[in-house]
């Protein structure tokens, strides 16, 4: 029996936001049509996956009614601890692909397995001989990097910074030292409601000539990217955001 494929299906970047952009503004029609043809899914949250499938159905009719879609969630511990270290065995989730069904892998926003869970599923697919097909769609990290004016030839995504203020300050200085020494842009993210606290910590901790870029609400009508030296950040408006639910990507470099 021929195996099905594992499709990495990107989602819009407006998850959790008050307004949503038209789906066809964020995703190519080919990606939407490919997703509409899939009836088996692996996701972070079944409720939000169904909401996304409703948006897809409004553009390209689903191959099966929403209630007939086979939707399976990644375990909660994968959400909390991540699955990038190879400790989670995702092979049982791919049983349908071994039976010939295509499976779609979803994250809440952007590309699954990039700054989100899902790498364990892609890894398991390779181990089982299941083809892995990434579909085209928005990736917030690359959009932010491209708009930042920072080094796009040498960069690293370092995930989340510590929540403890002292540990966070130490980590900021470590990343800044690396960026200034090597020229490697350092990218990181935060839970939206902590964005203001993180931005204030960056402005207070970084050296005045370090360049800090913040990209908020990418692909939305309210999207905003600011990239300036820390000295400039300090002398202009008090750092903050009018909508703490907007997702943001932070970057530092020279």
Question: What's the topology here?
Answer:
Elements: E1 6-8, H1 23-26, H2 29-36, E2 40-43, H3 46-59, E3 70-73, H4 76-81, H5 95-98, E4 103-105, H6 119-128, E5 132-134, H7 140-148, E6 155-160, H8 165-182, E7 185-189, H9 195-205, E8 211-216, E9 224-229, H10 230-235, E10 248-253
Parallel strand pairs: 1-4, 1-5, 2-3, 2-4, 6-7
Antiparallel strand pairs: 7-10, 8-9, 8-10
What distinguishing features does this structure have?
254 residues, alpha/beta, Cobalt-precorrin-4 Transmethylase, domain 1, Methyltransferase, Cobalt-precorrin-4 Transmethylase, Domain 2, 2 domains, 5-stranded parallel β-sheet, 5-stranded mixed β-sheet, 10 helices, 18% strand
Short description, anyone?
The protein is of the alpha/beta class. The chain is built from 10 helices and 10 strands.
């Amino acid at each position: 029996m021929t195996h099905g494929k594992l499709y990495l299906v990107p989602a819009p970047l407006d998850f959790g936001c008050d307004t949503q952009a038209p789906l066809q503004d964020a995703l190519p029609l080919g990606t939407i049509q490919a997703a509409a043809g899939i009836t088996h899914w692996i996701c972070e949250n079944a409720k939000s996956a169904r909401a996304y499938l409703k948006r897809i159905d409004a553009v390209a009719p689903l191959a099966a009614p929403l209630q007939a879609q086979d939707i399976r969630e990644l375990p909660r511990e994968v959400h909390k601890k991540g699955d990038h270290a190879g400790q989670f065995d995702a092979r049982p989730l791919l049983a349908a692909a071994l039976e010939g069904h295509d499976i779609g892998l979803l994250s809440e926003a952007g590309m699954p397995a990039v700054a989100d869970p899902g790498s364990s599923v892609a890894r398991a697919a390779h181990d089982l001989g299941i083809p892995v097909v990434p579909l085209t769609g928005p990736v917030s990290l690359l959009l932010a990097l491209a708009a930042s004016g920072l080094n796009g030839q040498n960069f690293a995504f370092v995930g989340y910074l510590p929540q403890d203020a002292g540990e966070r300050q130490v980590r900021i200085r470590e990343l800044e030292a690396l960026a200034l020494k090597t020229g490697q842009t350092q990218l990181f993210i935060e839970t939206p409601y902590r964005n203001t606290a993180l931005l204030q910590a960056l402005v207070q901790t970084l050296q005045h000539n370090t360049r800090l870029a913040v990209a908020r609400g990418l692909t939305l009508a309210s999207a905003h990217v600011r990239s300036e030296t820390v000295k400039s950040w300090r002398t202009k408006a008090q750092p903050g955001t009018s909508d703490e639910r907007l997702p943001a990507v932070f970057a530092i470099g020279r």
